[in-house]
Amino acid sequence: MLKTLEYRDGKLYIIDQTKLPTEKEIIAIETVEECFDAIKKLKVRGAPAIGIAAAYGVVLGIKDLEEDDFNSFYNELKKISKYLGSSRPTAVNLFWALDRMEKKALENKYKPVEEIKKILEEEAISIQREDEKICKKIGENGIEVLKDGYTILTHCNAGVLATSKYGTALAPIYLAKERGWNIKVFADETRPLLQGSRLTTFELMEAGIDVTLITDNMAAMVMSKGWIDVVIVGCDRVAANGDVANKIGTYGVALLAKAHNIPFYVAGPTTTIDLKTPTGKDIVIEERGREEIICGFGKQTAPSNVKVYNPAFDVTPNELIDGIITEKGIVRAPYDINLKTIFSGAGGE
Ligand code: MRU
């Protein structure tokens, strides 16, 4: 399996995802600025992977701080955390990971700063290791919605490349493959940055999984032919009422699935569930630059002065979602009640 992020000898190594699928270039991230840049430019992307990268970003940022009393060290750490948090606004995993690092520092405030730095490095490593286990569990829970012989449609990339391992939406597919099931995938290209065609097809093909690439506007036709048994997508933030922000175009796919009577599932770790955000309307949606639409991948495809709107995510209303596959089980409606329940230890199938 690919290694999306690897922390070694005080450096974070990532696959530069902007170069895929033509080049598999591993880059070393050595400073917090490089980490910010990698997240902002989507060299590392996908909600869980962004969270992990940000935790390592904190480690890189505090490494050379000279402050030796806790309060001044903590002030600097907060600045670093705020800076990393300003890279991308939608995926809540980023803020969750930064918050966890800040809390860990506070819990150890009476220890020498050099020791706290070591503890925070270990915390970032734990965040990554836990994500791996969580994704594996999402796969085990998610396989419930699959059957041998199924064809799954997915949007964007919620696979290995978006996490530490296995992925979220793709985790049940990898498990099905391991069990020897005959599983096929249709991958939406995912305009404008093509995570579906550049990343999802790439990683599924590396794993020997049967994948067919379609452009986003072909999904309706493929569904109408009866070729899709189930849709599974990832998520960047799940609001308390079960509304889900995910890659732009997900909402359209959910509407199409409803129109064709195809089950629509969202897969994600509980770290993507944000009970502090009441509904999808409260989720901040990242808007990205115009060049991604008018001059994608170096080819101008629109008049250079055309007006452009480029939201990176949309919100799928909870009523279009058959279930949210988490590491704690599959959460179903009523989401406002059942999402809270999984945090209290009960709930989920
Ligand atoms: O802009 P991206 O590539 O970071 O968007 C990624 C997605 O929307 C994924 O579906 C989501 O983060 C879940 S990844 C397990």
TrEMBL record:
Protein family according to the UniProt entry: Belongs to the EIF-2B alpha/beta/delta subunits family. MtnA subfamily.
Binding site for substrate: 45-47, 88, 195, 246-247
Matching PANTHER family: METHYLTHIORIBOSE-1-PHOSPHATE ISOMERASE (PTHR43475)
Active site: residue positions: 236 (proton donor)
Known function: Catalyzes the interconversion of methylthioribose-1-phosphate (MTR-1-P) into methylthioribulose-1-phosphate (MTRu-1-P).
Domain of life according to the entry: Bacteria
GO MF assignments: S-methyl-5-thioribose-1-phosphate isomerase activity
Keywords from the UniProt entry: Amino-acid biosynthesis, Isomerase, Methionine biosynthesis
Stored SUPFAM superfamilies: NagB/RpiA/CoA transferase-like
UniProt-listed GO biological process terms: L-methionine salvage from methylthioadenosine
One Pfam family in the UniProt entry: IF-2B
Pathway per the UniProt entry: Amino-acid biosynthesis; L-methionine biosynthesis via salvage pathway; L-methionine from S-methyl-5-thio-alpha-D-ribose 1-phosphate: step 1/6
Reactions mediated catalytically: 5-(methylsulfanyl)-alpha-D-ribose 1-phosphate = 5-(methylsulfanyl)-D-ribulose 1-phosphate
Name recorded for this polypeptide: Methylthioribose-1-phosphate isomerase
EC number: 5.3.1.23
Positions bearing the site annotation: Transition state stabilizer: 156
Keyword Oxidoreductase: no
